[in-house]
From TrEMBL:
Role: NDH-1 shuttles electrons from NADH, via FMN and iron-sulfur (Fe-S) centers, to quinones in the respiratory chain.
Entry EC no(s): 7.1.1.-
Superkingdom as given in the UniProt entry: Bacteria
Catalysed reaction, written as an equation: a quinone + NADH + 5 H(+)(in) = a quinol + NAD(+) + 4 H(+)(out)
Top class in the EC scheme: translocase
Family: Belongs to the complex I 51 kDa subunit family.
Protein name per Swiss-Prot or TrEMBL: NADH-quinone oxidoreductase subunit F
Amino acid sequence: MISLKNMVRTAETHPLTWRLRYDKEPVWFDEYRKKNGYFGAEKALKEMTPEEVVNVVKDSGLKGRGGAGFSTGLKWSLMPKDDSIKMRYLICNADEMEPGTYKDRLLMEELPHQLLEGMLIAAFALKSHRGYIFLRGEYIASFKNLTKAINEATQKGFLGKNIFGTGFNFELFIHTGAGRYICGEETALINSLEGGRANPRFKPPFPAFIGAWGKPTCVNNVETISNLPAILTNGVEWYKGLSKSDDTGTKMMGFSGRVKNPGLWELPFGITAREILEDYAGGMKDGLQIKAWQPGGASTDFLIEKHLDLPMDFSNIKQAGSRLGTAIALAVDNKINMVSVVLNLEIFFARESCGWCTPCREGLPWTVKILESLEKKQGRLGDVELLQKICYQLGPGKTFCAHAPGAMEPLQSALKYFREEFDAGIII
């Protein structure tokens, strides 16, 4: 998990992680309060209107930290302005099923009250009186710690009725999912929360208008919501000043793979991938060299060594042909065959397809079958060209949701940079 060695973390520079304990124990209510906990929520509820909170978040430039990078304040502003709509839902996407990603788990296990405070701020801004944390079922420690934190906050009057004596009511529930990657898509998550099959919905209408149980709904990621307390406490200009790029604030970033010190760190946008790999992750293990890397999860395009000097932000990584995603990077070393790497990923994506649309349901298992042949050196002439064709057929705009296009990103980029390794699997 997060490496704290040689890191100086302060409230001014590390808004997400400065409260973390070095013994890794959770920060419970009393300690959280002593560390300026719920100050941002009190400020929002007592001194601001919901519209003012939305504008502050919009002005801060906060973008979604789940992978899409969409403006949080803009997303909030899409919710109906009609005050006659009394039931609105706020949902925190805590499913975190992206392979190689574990940032939300840390925040929930060790700083549960920070997430609750962020939920309270968001609920007030959205005029929502009921919220759900849609939690990955395997996150047992997160469930226990969030449950205890909710009980603490409720007993202290920080959740429930008449919070801070302002007349605002907000009740919060935890819903554990059944373990489906597709629940990263917000409408599939909503269907699952309602007790249905986790299939994505046709859009429009968007959840902001017709979401959970037919009511206006906003879905935000754990890390996104966890940024809110610091923004409300310290202000927009401070938050913008944390970054080294046009993307504002800090980001939970990391490196896994065969590196010396795999881990997770809160870092400013704009730091280069090479700095994270070498200065924080300690570089590759002895005798190994980096061959390729994914910037932010299994569904992002592979980049190569020359791209390590790019700033880690949404625009620069996109220009290089990939996506920042979750910013938890995976390093692939020079001893590994890319066919095997991609096959492992595509097996996962094929298994996690909801089966709703034909290109994804049929195309992903077909992809796995071809890759298995290439890995065994039993491929046929035309197989690599067929894989390229499948990448196009399962690309953006050709499937019901983004699952299949995301599955194609590592494949299409591996074919681009390491075509010879795929060709080597063909029987001549």
